[in-house]
Amino acid sequence: MKFNSTLLIFPALLLGLLVMAPTEVQAQDPHFSQFYSAPLQMNPALTGVFPGEYRFTANYRTQNYAVLGNQSYQSIAASFEGRRRVGRDDFYSLGVAVLRDQVGESNFSRSRAVLSGSYLKHLGSGRSRGSDQFLIGGAQLGVGQWTFDWNNLWFSEQFNDDPMLGNIGIDFGAINGESFAATETDLFMEFNAGILYYNVIDEDNSFYFGGALHHLNEPNVSFMEDQTEKLHRRWVGQVGGQVGLTRELGLLPAVAIMGQGPSFLGIGGLNLRYSNRDWREIAIRAGLWGRMVNEGESGMGLESMVVSAILEVERWQFGLSYDVTISDLSSANNSRGAFELSLIYVHPSKERFKVICPKF
Predict the structure, then answer these.
(1) Residues 142-155 pLDDT 10s
(2) Could you list the residue range(s) of the whole structural domain that residue 208 is in?
(3) In terms of Cα–Cα distance, which of 345, 317, 310 is closest to 80?
(4) Interatomic CA distance for residues 338 and 72, integer angstroms
(5) What is the CATH classification number for the domain harbouring 268?
(6) Is residue 77 within a helix (H) or strand (E), and if so which, with residue range?
(7) pLDDT of residue 257 exceeding 90
(8) Cα(192)–Cα(190) distance, rounded to whole angstroms?
(9) Is residue 352 situated within a structural domain?
(10) Residues 269, 253 contacting (CB under 8 angstroms)
């Protein structure tokens, strides 16, 4: 069995990131429970961090269907990126990422598209065969827009409580008494940046850590003309790696925390990975994750548990996960939180010497 004592720092790092987190929460940017399968939505520095020539990623999430039905939260993301060598040991990568998030009877949606780039600087190899260290800086530049639909909304002026005027209830054809008529924000620019360090100690052991800042320019997302409503910056911290147990078995622990204005979310756990170690590799993963949020006056608490399963077949990776609500919301949604799918395709490189990357 291959094992390095450096990896004993994982329990302390994973616990520390969750314990030292902020204690206030409100609305946040869309997020995925399989954050490790949505790299360009997490950190621009993850652009190009894969063992191949190019990578395609797709993610889908539906949340709180038990409560909201067809108006449940739905998030769809996709990205494509390619990597090229610079000199002997360094690389640069370019890609594009899109995201659309929609929720509620108002069909409130947030859409964005960004160009993503990174530079992978090789810091050297260790004494162990195959050991490699990289420091990556990444940035994203793109546009976004928020929209919603008035048609399914009602206001107090449209509520009919006079029996003489007909049926008591909502009259959607009545004047709503609102002067506000905008259904979309102006297109806004956004700028994101991140950094990542990783060390692949050997084929079965590695670790990484990094962070990112999103919406650095704090764009205006107001629906009102001549009004300003800044989109708060979102910060992200992440740490994880791989711990080899046997030739076929390994652990993939990870933690991600993020804050946006007064909001906070943290998720951590691990996947157990089994591989046949054949030249046509097939691997399966099973994992358990916990999501922590602030639960109002009661402070930090465990909001849900996430169970995950992933199948790797050569170039393809298929993932699914389910959020089981364990907070007070479980009484309303019968513990049925969110369902998520992920797909990753990595095209192998034709180069003789390939970049070594950690598993996520």
Answers:
(1) 999 998 877 667 66
(2) 5-148+183-347
(3) 345
(4) 10
(5) 2.40.160.40
(6) strand 73-86
(7) yes
(8) 7
(9) no
(10) yes
